[in-house]
Amino acid sequence: MRKKEPKEIFKKSLLACVVIVGFGVYLSIRGSKEKTEFESVTGQIDYFDKTFGEINYGNKGDHRFIHIVDFPLVFEIFVGNAPGDFGPKFEQLDQLAVGDEITVYYAEKTPLQRNQDLRLNKTVQFIDKDGEAYFIRGNKDKYGGYFFIGIGVLLAIALLILKRIGKIQ
Questions:
Q1: Which end of the chain, C or N, has fewer beta carbons within 10 A?
Q2: What is the Cα–Cα distance from 157 to 159, expressed in whole angstroms?
Q3: 33: which DSSP letter?
Q4: Which pLDDT score is estimated for 169?
Q5: pLDDT tens sequence across 47-83
Q6: What is the largest CA-CA distance in the chain?
Q7: What distance in Å separates the CA atoms of residue 134 and residue 151, rounded to the nearest whole number?
Q8: Is-contact 67 124, C-beta < 8 A?
Q9: What was the pLDDT predicted at 86?
Q10: pLDDT in the model for residue 50
């Protein structure tokens, strides 16, 4: 019986771990930024929709869709309040109406979001009306970043162990 040769995947797998950790760092930094550090747009709402339950891609929870006059994208905002949801820290979006002038602070799309629905921006961080907060993001980005950092580090440790015992090269 022939002994299996160790597979030569160590370098590529370790590079993948570095990418995963890098993405985690990116998310955790984005989750810690102040409002003024994000892109913003100010304008009148010309479309506002409240959607409940299962929508788009099978997402569950409450979503709000807001469009601002002359802005090319519709903002999709998750406002789930069920236990376990990574909902916002504060939100009173249902008090907004078509015609209200608001300022939306949003982040750039992550690499994983760039090829999703190009009509939507799902990275809303804050929404203000007349200097008063109507939406403040939750900790989803921060915790997601920590998760990716942890997974990347654990995978790297597993790779190092497998290399040391000779299972991979």
A1: N
A2: 5
A3: -
A4: 82
A5: 998 875 444 545 555 889 999 999 999 999 988 766 6
A6: 77
A7: 34
A8: no
A9: 75
A10: 80
Q: Spell out, as residue ranges, where the chain has pLDDT lower than 50.
A: 53-55, 57
In contact, 103 and 135? CB cutoff 8 Å:
no
Tokens representing residue 133 in the block: 């907060």
Calculate the alpha carbon distances from 164 to 9, 14, 16, 35, 168 in Å: 13, 14, 19, 46, 8
Tokens of 18: 């570095």
In the prediction, which pLDDT does 168 show? 86
Cα-Cα end-to-end distance for the chain: 21
Asked if residue 96 lies in contact with residue 50, where contact means CB atoms within 8 angstroms, the answer is no
Q: Please answer whether residues 152 and 18 qualify as being in contact, where contact means their C-beta atoms are separated by less than 8 angstroms.
A: yes
Chain-centroid distance of CA 3 in Å reads: 45
Nearest-5° Cα angle at 79, 73 to 83 = 150
Q: How many residues does the chain have?
A: 169
| Alpha carbons within 13 A on the beta-carbon side of 6 | 12
Q: Write down the pLDDT at residue 82.
A: 67
Q: Please state the pTM of the whole predicted model.
A: 0.80
Which residue is it, tokens 């890098």? 22
- Of all helices (H) and strands (E), which one includes residue 142? helix 140-164
